[in-house]
TrEMBL record:
Organism: Providencia rettgeri
Protein name as annotated: Trimethylamine-N-oxide reductase
Highest classification ranks of the organism: Bacteria, Pseudomonadati, Pseudomonadota, Gammaproteobacteria, Enterobacterales
Length: 70
C-alpha cells in the first residue's frame, strides 16, 4: 500500500473521482466508491481540521515600480 497523508477530517471527496458525470451535465460524481482499507496501528495525530488557517506574515521590502526588472 502506498504511504500517504491521512485525511483527518473525514471528507468523502478524498475517495471519489474529481470528474464530471458527463460532458453535458458536468455534475459531481456520486459519493460511492470501492475502497480497500486496513487497520491503522500507529500513533494518531490530533484532529486539527477545525482550528482555522495558520496566519503567515511576510516582511516585504518596498521597491519602486521604476526599479522593477532592472
Amino acid at each position: 500500500m502506498e504511504k500517504s497523508i491521512p485525511c483527518k477530517y473525514g471528507n468523502p471527496n478524498v475517495l471519489t473521482l474529481d470528474i464530471g458525470t458527463s460532458q453535458l451535465a458536468q455534475a459531481t460524481s456520486a459519493h460511492t466508491t470501492l475502497v480497500e482499507i486496513e487497520k491503522y496501528t500507529g500513533q494518531v495525530d490530533n484532529v486539527n481540521a477545525f482550528d482555522g488557517p495558520i496566519e503567515m506574515v511576510a516582511q516585504c521590502e518596498y521597491v519602486p515600480a521604476s526599479q522593477v526588472n532592472k
